[in-house]
Amino acid sequence: MLSSLVKEKPEVRLRAFRAVDEPETCALFIEGHTHVLTSIGITKVTSSKNEWTTNPSSFVMVVESLDGKVVYGGARVHVAGGTQQLPIEQATGAMDAGVFGLVWQYAQQGTGELCGLWNSRQIAGYGIGSIFLIRTAVAIAYQIGIQSLFALCAPYTIPPGVAVGMEYETTIGENGTFYYPKLDLVATTMLLKDVPVLSKAYEEDKIAIMKIRDNQKIIRTEILRKKEITIHYDIEIQNLKQWDLSVSIAQAKKNYFN
What we know:
The protein is of the alpha+beta class. It has helices at about 25-40, 85-90, 100-105, 130-145, 160-165, 205-215, 245-255; strands spanning about 10-20, 60-65, 70-80, 110-120, 150-155, 165-170, 175-180, 185-190, 215-225, 225-235.
């Protein structure tokens, strides 16, 4: 397969893995994400040191060419209790320490955060960064066993966040908002409280998530604003048995009470 993208009707793979298992793919993720951030004037974010690449509780999604040579976009799900605080804690803790208690409230049953969402200009307009990666992150959250999922959303990711069942979390910041990652950008705290059930998700999104969740290797032709993209979903996380959510929950407790 050639790694070039057919713009009229692109075909890509959306794949998931633990960060520690694929350092080379993580490097491609970092390169692409950094390019997107710098193109809009963002040079410093809390994950800029890329410590997540060695965090055993960091799970990565990439949208890549079918031959795996080019990464067009991606996102991550970090689980509370890994070797780092959640990105939302790193980003906002100095502004409002209440975030730590909020995360711990949900970490006791297993929680995480959708973060690092991006897509390249090559694939802009097909919903990768605004819909399909977000749906996939929710499916991944179920696979790894967490019950809730945080997100610190830019304005354009709020509607798709709501669509998958996320709610505004207004107990921290300025009614849930922070100036992040720079002073002229506003980020909004969102929380999906019931990953297994998705009680507040829109029906279309819930059906799509369930299909991906129940068929971890599935090919779907997705349509957004009359644009079609064929996605080869491959979200079964290899070596997942080597990771234990209960260990992360126990570590989260140590992090908050030691």
